[in-house]
Amino acid sequence: MSLKFSGLPMEMSNExxxxxxxxxxxxxxxxxxxLLTQLIALKIxxxxxxxxxxxxxxxxxxxxxxxxxxxxxxxxxxxxxxxNVGYSAAPIPxxxxxxxxxxFRLLLEPAAAAMATERIKPGQxxxxxxLSQEMEAxxxxxSVATYGRxxxxxxxxxxxxxxxxxxxxxxxxxxxxxxxxxxxxxxxHTTVTGDAIKEHASILAAIQAxxxxxxxxxxxxxxxxxxxxxxxxxxxLK
Length: 238
Fold this sequence. Notes:
Four Helix Bundle (Hemerythrin (Met), subunit A); 3 strands; globular; mainly alpha; Arc Repressor Mutant, subunit A
């Protein structure tokens, strides 16, 4: 297998491979973000085998950071591993699965946002603000790599609100959905990120104001808007 890693993060050009991976963060993190970008943009299509040996050649690194990245992507539901077969890109969930996910999120996430408003700790509040600012910064650069990075931040935004609610069952239940990564695989478009940033800002403002009712309402509005944006795409899935 030979993969072309064109939208690599950290300003990496189409021709550069692993030997040119930048050192701003860990090598494993660079490889993770590169593979994540390719998976979300469907440059690695669902079901395609991911050969560790081929990835080692493409990136010019040892197997250790490649395996670490694949294990992390497996935990996030973006790759699957089968015994004696190896890793491959995960299939995109069915349209019915997406409908069920949205119904489930509408039950849990508004309540989690309300609880988080009342229970959030100062450090969590600061981290949520900083994350929101980082998401807004991605709007200044339009690229596949930036889109992949936004997907990571979007998932983290929702995870942080769930964590701040303090309910372990809610945290575990939402964490098993892998919702955000799969949603971003459905449609690569900047309007997805732009609208989401505005909706996130409303959620954050309500949390900052200590208004649990408004936080729940803003979260519900965000999930409904996301469903409306994405439904034409997951409706086409089997």
